[in-house]
Amino acid sequence: MAKIPVRFKRVAAAFDEVVRARPCDSWESESSTELSDADLSDLVNSFLEEERVGVEEEMVEDEGGDVERETDGDLIGRRESYCSDSETKEALRSLLGDEASDDAVEKIRAETELACRHIGSGSSSKGFKRRLMNRLRERGFDAGLCKSRWGKTNKRSIPGDYEYVDVNIVGTRYVVEVFLAGEFEIARATKDYISLLEEFPPIFVGKQEELKQIVRIMSRAMKGSMKSVEMHVPPWRRNSYMQAKWFGSYKRTTSAAPPRKESERGAGFAGERLPEMILLVG
Q: Are 202 and 229 in contact (CB under 8 A)?
């Protein structure tokens, strides 16, 4: 049997990761289109460019030797970078467990569970997050549908977009995600990495600071898992890309219906356009 070249395997892995990444980024965006050949080419070329640059550019120590700086701008504490698998799991468990919850989290989670029974639990279906937001608003929560979008910041990064639901309670913002673990699924995951995914609850409700720590932990774990099976970490699986989903500039809407194109919007009295409830943040 002919031996499959390593480069071919890595190209195949790049396509596999593209398939995993794209539906999660924009499956619910009304303006999203099918992934084009050019998009696939750009993503895979970016993947291969990262591989060509090599490991030596992925990490640069500062003079004090206390901080590791990845080329995409992420700062990771040296102590965190060398946590054992058990320490990583314990840190994740402390952020996802019941002990991290408060009364507001419990109320939002309970209503989200009821909403999923009412609207269905197909979190990857088109319009699911908008229906979830509508249901939470009907139950008296200040819920919104947030659409984040980010551009290409350097030659090795890629643009993207994402949608998620948030709830504001007395000045505190909570992020609501059904099947958050799905955002961290990767190809050829190790057993240790899979065990981390199993720590995630079906419904995540948490503050931004908590989610930011979770993303950092999982991004580091993804990198370790992929490199252990000789897969290079693609740009859409780096911490900066993952953080941009929830912590970059975003547009928040509380409208029950998705925004229509300008040509399709109905006119109000005297030909005036009907306003949409949209808030730009960031």
A: no
Q: Which residue has the tokens 């593209």?
A: 18
Neighbouring CB atoms inside 10 A of 23's CB total 13
CB atoms within 10 A of CB 219: 22
| pLDDT, tens digit (0-9, with 9 covering 90-100), for 140-168 | 999 999 999 999 877 777 999 999 999 99
What's the average model confidence in pLDDT over 199-209? Answer: 96
Whole-angstrom Cα distance, residue 20 to residue 233? 14
Beta-sheet pairing, 172-178 with 160-169: antiparallel
252 — phi, psi (to 5°)? -110, 130
Considering Cα of 157, then 161, then 165, then 168, what sign does the dihedral take?
A: positive
The encoded tokens of residue 26 equal 């924009």
Measured distance CA(165)–CA(146) in Å, rounded? 6
Rounded to whole angstroms, the Cα distance separating 72 from 246 reads 17
Side chain identity at 215, as an amino acid letter? V
Instruction: Read off the tokens for 218.
Output: 């999982």
